[in-house]
């Protein structure tokens, strides 16, 4: 099936929300438990939220239409799916010319994260289109980030993820899960950790979070 707004522009995902089990936990989300719920089925963690952060929005934008943030129905079949068992791709897909019209990750506060490039292929941050928290509203009044939500570390531990990419791999900040400084990054903007599991890192400079999607995903080009 092709997934709508709540699951970005990836297809082939069997959400099966009606078969989801009770609430579960994922690292990083606990600080936002009052506004974000996580369930799972046989294949995916399902992240539910209304898409609105607790911080201010649309402040500091220099070049963007001033939309009004409104709650979004990211629940049920429209929840954000994170693969329980992500698989490294043999041919990672570049974010430079793909995934320009939808989310590529979900922040631990339930706000979707889009490509760092806008749908014209320009760096949204450098173009002045983002607010002081790295986000803005789309024309559907859906609030989303375009860069790594590193500001969320004001609420969580620096050793926890600040987001999860929709390929299933976590996004960390400037330190590793053990608290040590970030190790060198690969082409995708991440690396394998000592436990054999891949993760990304968010940085203040481009590509900010994901340069290539390290995990297996399918882009739904019908929305391009």
Describe this entry's structure for a reader.
By secondary structure, the chain is mostly beta strands. The protein has no helices and 13 strands. The strands form four sheets. It has a six-stranded mixed β-sheet, with no helix packed on it. A hairpin with a 5-residue loop joins strand 7 and strand 8 (143-145). The two termini are 17 Å apart. 42% of the residues are buried.
Strand content: 15-25%
Number of helices: 0
Cα gyration radius (Å): 16 Å
- N/C terminus separation: 17 Å
> For the largest beta sheet, what order do the strands appear in spatially?
6-5-9-10-12-11
Large-scale geometry: globular
Highlighted features:
224 residues; 6-stranded mixed β-sheet; mainly beta; 3-stranded antiparallel β-sheet; single chain; 13 strands
Summarize, please:
This protein is mostly beta strands and 224 residues long.
Topology:
Blueprint: E1 37-40, E2 44-48, E3 80-83, E4 88-94, E5 103-107, E6 112-114, E7 135-137, E8 143-145, E9 163-165, E10 170-172, E11 190-192, E12 198-201, E13 212-215
Parallel strand pairs: 10-12
Antiparallel strand pairs: 1-2, 2-3, 4-13, 5-6, 5-9, 7-8, 9-10, 11-12
């Amino acid at each position: 099936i092709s997934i709508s707004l709540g699951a970005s522009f990836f297809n082939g995902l069997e959400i099966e929300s009606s078969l989801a089990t009770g609430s579960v936990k994922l690292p990083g989300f606990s600080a936002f438990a009052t506004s974000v719920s996580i369930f799972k089925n046989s294949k995916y963690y399902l992240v539910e939220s209304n898409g609105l952060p607790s911080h201010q929005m649309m402040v500091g934008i220099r070049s963007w239409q001033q939309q009004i943030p409104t709650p979004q129905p990211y629940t049920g079949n429209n929840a954000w799916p994170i693969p329980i068992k992500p698989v490294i791709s043999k041919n990672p897909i570049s974010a430079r010319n793909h995934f320009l019209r939808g989310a590529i990750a979900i922040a631990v506060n339930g706000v979707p994260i889009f490509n760092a490039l806008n749908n014209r292929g320009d760096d949204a941050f450098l173009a002045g289109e983002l607010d002081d928290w790295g986000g803005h509203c789309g024309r559907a009044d859906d609030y989303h980030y375009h860069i790594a939500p590193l500001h969320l570390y004001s609420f969580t531990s620096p050793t926890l993820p600040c987001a999860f990419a929709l390929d299933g791999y976590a996004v960390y900040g400037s330190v590793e899960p053990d608290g040590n400084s970030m190790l060198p990054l690969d082409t995708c903007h991440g690396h394998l950790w000592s436990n054999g599991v891949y993760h990304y890192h968010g940085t203040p400079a481009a590509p900010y979070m994901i340069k290539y999607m390290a995990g297996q995903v399918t882009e739904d080009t019908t929305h391009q």
